[in-house]
Design brief:
6 copies of one chain form a homohexamer. With 285 residues, chain A is of the alpha/beta class. Chain A is built from 11 helices and 14 strands. The N and C termini of chain A lie far apart (38 Å). Chains in contact: A-B, A-F, B-C, C-D, D-E, E-F. The interface between C and D is large, with 37 and 37 residues.
């Protein structure tokens, strides 16, 4: 970067104008997870990117994951993580540890980093203001939940007043019982409920790959009616199936574009928003 | 209670009217801690009392503590709690565990219980919206902090919109460093910054006692200019000294009345607000 | 009441919470009349009950009657009260006296008593802001009117700003002619127009009685489609017929529950709102 | 008027523009009393004038008197009116009758007439919203009161929302006791409290006269520091002394101009506002 | 005017009340043009009339023409004005001169005169806030445009804040190209888009005349379904055809009444608004 | 620019964050003039830069000049421009031509170009809303004016609603007389009145030069108390003296930084705002 002249810098800024206009005052929901969350440099990079989005007039909403840190803490408590179809079976103790990690550690750290970047933000669990009403997903999974309703008043209030909400994927039911929900699902449901223009799912792969072992086979765009076809062909598989599913569901509820991107790539979100060449897989109508 | 007739119930309600009027639209800061937080029945009682306050037009703000649970978790991580003058020496790992317990467990549980009582509430750490700006208290104490400034915008916004803020006593500085702060101190500073009418510190003793071993020696009222005298006489001692100090400081900044009450006593807060006979020690000008 | 301990008082308050929640921010229209208006102690009791309702977050709207005092004043002016089907035949002079009694005496006194109980209130005649547009009910009745339209702007403004409106049942037409309207009818029309949750008609009997001479035969609940049946059976008779009619009409326009209660019973309104055992006859869908 | 051509009408309108501009959005308090209140044609004229003021952007506030009608009603009740220094000695019964006449009859009639002229108005007694806080004037006078404080919130709310307040000169104290207050005094106190630009006192004489028996000796302007001189000279005498006193007091609290005019003169208020030649006596600094 | 007594003036004002009420808070769009714009005395008269309208609670919106001054300026630049069907063929240079005359001279002068009459006003071209979106009318006419859409936000904002908009009939397209539009057309389109109650087209004739050479043959009212008939009969001809067309179109979009009046007649607009006898031709449903 | 990778673009954006934060929600007044206004490419560049400022949260206010085009138009009308101390002697005809050029041509064109860049803007002369109250500067100069008062209501309203005001430097007095004012003076007065954070004067030189013939001798910063010294030394001379004077005056009224920059330099404003190395001369306290 050293060699970029001020003149060139100014030109780059001016060239970003059409993209800034396009997202002016729009909500963009970012599922933040994977390596971009565990690596300190990546983490600071992502949050600076989000601070920039905020300052140029976009309203980012962050939903974070936290799987590895939950597992680590469970070990500390002598508990073994069990997964069914990629979902962590959650008993009372696991739930308690999950909440502590998500709200008490991860969201909290994101809020502090955004604050350092001059952005007012606030950690929100789905319990706050009963924002995420949930129910159990399956008797076998214990306190694993699925979103029933998003009550968006609190989030809209905070967004309108200039705060970036940092959301831990925890739900609650009317009796006060809490649930551990998949962060992609929460991000998709929020994007739909908040009328977001864009949903970005940050992963550790560069998108949907024709050949999982070769990053150069990335599919840059999938129409939602092609999804079944890709699943049948075995191209969309495993953990990618629910991710793509969240995107399809969000699009059907009015979100315009969903992106599955590689959080390890520097400035991945900005590239998706401020350039014409996306970096991951775009899912749209 | 079985034998109270509906007629009598109605009379009791009407007799509470002058108290309801007195606190109408006023903010009351409650430091919630001690046994009232560890015992399930007491906990539900306190939060129902707070729900009632909210519904009769008072704006409660809760600041919670969490010492014992932090100690327990530290043990799980093989760390030994060290205290200097009653303050927990806090290294990075301790700070991380502290935050997880306070924001991720205790605040979260309070929010869920209030929700079940029909009250919209939200867990707020001092990092959210940089509400509590803090600095290190002393080099020997590590990340133990002391309040520098309360930035009350976020809290006032939430109160105005009908939410009960549940505050974890964690501070942050401009560089994003976090601090563990004494909950009494935070409650006092918030009461002053929010223009609260009353500050209630919930403890495990029935107030300031002339004879610590005899609950019947409770002093029902202390003027702030008598405090030094009581300290010299050895009546206000130990952990009670900083508590009384928080009260004095809050009163000097405009709070009218501070109460040190016994959280184990059922409906202690309501008794302090809705009857003439206080249950603890009142500190005032 | 002497023997109720503060503890018990607090318990009673907490037990009223579900009822307070149910009526939070709702409008309750109270037709205030009969003995509860002529007896000083009852009057003070009723208005203290209404003050309590206001302070716990309910929006009461009072419609008052005033028959006996009008008759008394007419006598003073040497006029004889004539009634057709329970409605006072109203000539110009009678109308003038009626207005003086209703607005200038009764409403005015209620406003003063509420003020003394710390409640901001305001006397409103249907002429103020042309709130009650009316027309003549029948050529034989002179200036006896019936409600045509409620213009609720002024009332909603005052309610929103925290005032309790005290309404004299006088209507006006576009030419400025004034009408004497039955207070039950006005209360019912207002309950419907203001979207009230509940309408309470205060009478001198304990509700609809199977045997008019035996208060123990009170019918505690009538569905609106049973009303005709009760009339045919001669159980709902005389002055009770229009009262029940106002309730039916209000319920058909969206009011949830109407109550005919005995104003002589102490705290009758509170018992209807804050306990499960109603004291009069409930009319609902 | 028949012979005024449309062209001339338009010219007259245009010539009134500077006066309309001068009073745009200003409050003008009118004490309405005397013959202009008892004669039907005059009454309709005055209220049409006030409707015009309202529609061209001025905010009129009416304070009405009612002496003769009170006396008449007292006779009906066999009570004899006694006056000390022009003030009606007021016992409980007199107070009750006074209120009925003022709020229940006179204000009510004014509101109806304004309504017929397309103006939203509302009768307000000093008890409504505890607008006029008062105390007893002298032990000898019974319930004759004097203004202590004007609580102007309710009036400002109503003015802002486009209502013309019609005020009965009745005060109240914190205990709910009511007082009969001189209407000129109330008008002066309101003009000061509401920041009125002008106070107009309507009387039955054409202003302050050098020779009380000769209307041609009207003094068109008095500076407030000349008042004592006029009193000493016996030119300002009797009932005119308190009227001039109200004006002086209002001017000292910021009202710019006070007028004592003859309400029997057709369009007297409009002439005072919309022409350069006043019709009564102007009192100013 | 000398001989009009103050009494008569007041009477005239009161008689205008019903008209003032009728237009209270309504928008009236005035196409201002012809001799009333070139003659200094007429100009001052018209703008004083409009100031009066504003002060009595009407919201006037002015659309001005400017043909003769454009022609004059073109001559200065050695350009010859060419008209096709009464529309000025407009090349780039003509457009530039047109804009300078309309926005830079005529609107600017109107704003100054209104300011002198105490009215806040603001010159608005259709380019400001892209208020008038337009397209070319015909390839032969160059930059002569026709209205596509009125974007009324800016105008409604200014009206709400008390400004009188003075609109130059210039349109713009999304690419920033500007168009010269007929002022009558703009006035009609604005009246429809702003929900005006009345549209007034100021011309140099006294309305639609049966015999163009005889002003006494004015038709005082035309229903919109009679228009075709009048055109076929050769009564509505030449430049009057598009004027009547604008009126018909405005009425079809909700404007109640359109008037074609003679701007040379003194107070013509006021006569149309404040008297029953209109001065021009009324077109309505 | 071709060779800048998307990655680098993203980095440049992120590096601009601190500058965007610094000017968030602040007003920046830009005097736009000189070659940057006459050259089409420069013009489009400047307005795109301003559009970018608007979209990243800054509130730009443009004041434009127009000297050369006024001179050109005067020639067309056979008038000779005469200058005294650099100020154009202005008679009535010159004033008329000046206004036409400034409001009708230059402002109008800027508004259209901003519209094409997605920015809502509006041309404002100092006559609109009587924004710039002015008086004659000197009898010798005719209608050359100087600012007396800025009435900022209209501008603040438009800024708050998201419009970029484009201001022609024309003033008006209470009698409606108009004045031609130096654009630098208007820009300085507006910056002070609007509480701008920064004032940028765009010229045709690269700032204050030690040696006027050598652009490399630019002085990058002048403290306001050094100004006299630079004038005495003959470094600040000629037309630069009033420019520097405007800056000094603006700074004394609270503007933090004023810049004299070369409008011919591409992206000059952005470089001044978004980089640490200014491009012109900074004047500050």
């Amino acid at each position: 970067m050293m060699k970029i002249s001020p003149q060139t810098q100014a030109s780059v800024l001016v060239e970003s104008l059409p993209y800034i206009q396009k997202f002016h005052n729009e909500i963009v929901v970012v599922k933040y997870g994977g390596s971009a969350m565990s690596n300190r440099a990546l983490k600071e990079g992502v949050l600076r990117d989000i601070a920039l989005m905020k300052y140029v007039g976009i309203n980012p909403v962050i939903v974070h994951g936290g799987g590895p840190e939950i597992t680590e803490m469970m070990q500390r408590y002598g508990k073994k993580a069990t997964f069914i179809d990629g979902l962590r079976v959650t008993d009372e103790k696991t739930m308690e540890l999950t909440e502590m990690v998500l709200s008490g550690k991860i969201a909290s750290e994101i809020v502090a980093l955004l604050g350092r970047n001059g952005v007012k933000s606030i950690g929100i669990s789905g319990k706050d203001g009963q924002t995420i009403l949930a129910k159990a997903k399956s008797p076998d999974l214990g306190l694993v939940g699925t979103v029933e309703t998003i009550q968006s008043d609190l989030l809209m209030l905070l967004i309108r007043e200039g705060y970036v909400p940092v959301i831990s994927p925890i739900g609650v039911d009317e009796q006060g019982a809490r649930y551990n929900i998949n962060a992609d699902e929460v991000a998709g449901a929020l994007a739909a409920a908040l009328g977001a223009k864009k949903l970005v799912l940050m992963t550790d792969v560069s998108g949907v790959l024709r050949d999982a072992s070769d990053p150069n086979t990335r599919i840059s765009e999938i129409k939602i009616d092609e999804v079944d076809h890709y699943i049948k062909q075995g191209i969309v598989t495993g953990g990618m199936i629910p991710k793509v599913g969240c995107c399809v569901s969000a699009i059907e509820k009015g979100v315009q574009r969903c992106h599955i991107i590689d959080g390890k790539k520097s400035h991945a979100i900005l590239l998706e928003i401020f350039t014409d060449d996306g970096v991951g897989t775009l899912i749209q109508k």
